[in-house]
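In the design runs reported in the main text, the only information available to the sequence generator was the tokenized backbone. The following block is the verbatim input for one such run; it is reproduced so that readers can re-run the procedure and compare outputs position by position.
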């Protein structure tokens, strides 16, 4: 009993001075992984039926931003050393995410048909990125300010720029219908590919890991905290790109298809005219620069009952791949995070957060079990690109992390 009391007293003394994210251990090793997926077409209750009924008019009216699919996978390991006025660590992470958006005009065709003599266009854009990241956070205190600087060396592994594709549909006056689809494919990769001498077949070439690591970029994260009162902590953060990462190879292809269908009056399968072409993947040496997002904002943490209860709020702006060739208005997005963290006897922790990050609305519940030298964190929640649909089973995320130390 005395040992338990001493451990609680030690933790309390260690976190006497308020911080946005107080340390729990002097030395901590951790590893974790997480994943998420969302789509805004239909929830699980609508799909898991014996007979599925699709109301295209309802879908068309509810999908203001079109059909959006998102996904992400990440894994991380780290080692931190935390002292009273100084600390440092080393973090390694793999971060992969992607997004596809098809304009609502496609659903409008199914819901309302194609107006005679009018051309209807359907736009699609998509992007994908995968990074290998190594960072070395260092924090120190100047007067009452805590400054945390996080230099990060990142290596882009695969990057698909925010490219646009198009499909067009025309209902001619003679009753025939024409459809044309054009999808360009560009994949920038750290992996080197080659082409065989006697064919156009692309194959994976030998490429040493050291060659890939040399093409990394560098950015700098900064977090400045100030204990406004013993209960209220204020902070400002930024992630600033400095040197872009480089991808030296590109796999490119294109998909083109045109279909002409006869009128319903004299419809015949043999009269359907199609022209389909998908070119072989071609590998070329093509330099492409990629940055991690530019981010900046502010956050607060309010603790009405010491560290037992923490109310958090964060708001900021982000820019995906700033200064890149594919930067556009879709690359800009706001961010926010509101949360409540509850800790009971420094052993059981419960957190509830609602946020909008990386253009995804998410509502997450986290459970923390802390046995001092060992900690287990498990979180799960709902997510979606649409705010109202983020409360339904149209997307989910989950993460697990284990931590060791003293």
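Verbatim output:
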């Amino acid at each position: 009993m005395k040992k338990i009391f001493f451990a609680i007293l030690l933790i309390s003394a260690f976190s006497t001075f308020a911080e946005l994210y107080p340390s729990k251990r002097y030395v901590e090793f951790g590893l974790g992984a997480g994943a998420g997926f969302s789509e805004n077409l239909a929830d699980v209750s609508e799909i898991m039926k014996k007979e599925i009924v699709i109301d295209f008019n309802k879908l068309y009216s509810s999908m203001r931003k079109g059909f959006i699919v998102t996904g992400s996978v990440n894994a991380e390991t780290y080692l931190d050393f935390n002292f009273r006025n100084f600390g440092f660590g080393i973090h390694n992470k793999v971060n992969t995410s992607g997004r596809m958006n098809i304009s609502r005009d496609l659903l409008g065709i199914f819901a309302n048909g194609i107006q005679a003599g009018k051309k209807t266009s359907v736009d699609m854009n998509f992007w994908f990125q995968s990074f290998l990241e190594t960072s070395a956070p260092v924090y120190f205190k100047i007067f009452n300010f805590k400054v945390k600087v996080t230099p990060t060396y990142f290596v882009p592994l695969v990057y698909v720029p925010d490219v646009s594709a198009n499909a067009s549909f025309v209902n001619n006056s003679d009753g025939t219908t024409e459809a044309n689809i054009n999808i360009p494919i560009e994949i920038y990769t750290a992996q080197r590919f080659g082409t065989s001498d006697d064919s156009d077949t692309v194959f994976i070439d030998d490429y040493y890991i050291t060659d890939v690591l040399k093409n990394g970029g560098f950015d700098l994260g900064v977090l400045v905290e100030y204990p406004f009162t013993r209960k209220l902590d204020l902070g400002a953060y930024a992630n600033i790109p400095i040197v872009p990462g480089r991808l030296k190879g590109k796999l490119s292809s294109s998909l083109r298809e045109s279909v002409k269908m006869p009128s319903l009056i004299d419809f015949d399968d043999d009269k359907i005219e199609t022209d389909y072409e998908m070119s072989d993947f071609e590998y070329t040496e093509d330099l492409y620069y990629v940055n991690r997002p530019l981010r900046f904002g502010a956050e607060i943490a309010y603790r009405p009952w010491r560290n037992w209860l923490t109310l958090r709020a964060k708001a900021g702006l982000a820019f995906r791949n700033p200064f890149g060739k594919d930067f556009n208005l879709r690359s800009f997005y706001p961010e926010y995070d509101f949360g409540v963290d509850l800790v009971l006897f420094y052993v059981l922790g419960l957190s509830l957060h609602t946020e909008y990050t990386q253009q995804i609305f998410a509502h997450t519940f986290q459970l923390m079990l802390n046995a001092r030298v060992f900690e287990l964190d498990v979180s799960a929640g709902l997510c979606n690109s649409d705010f109202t649909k983020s409360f339904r089973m149209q997307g989910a995320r989950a993460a697990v992390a284990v931590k060791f130390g003293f």
